[in-house]
Input
Amino acid sequence: MAEARIDGPAERTMLRATAIVAAALSCLDTASEAWIESDGADDLAELYDEAVAAVRG
Output
């Protein structure tokens, strides 16, 4: 599904789509760990947004 929304050379679409999905899952994992560390006090969605912002630079 992500492949259909990726611009660039067709022969590298799967590579870029896989990298994007992997980064998103990594951000979710990192945010989840921070949320657990906070005993659920921090907002998981905000933690995820912060992690994504860090990746985007």
User: Anything to note?
Assistant: Helices lie at 13-37, 44-56. The mean pLDDT is 90.
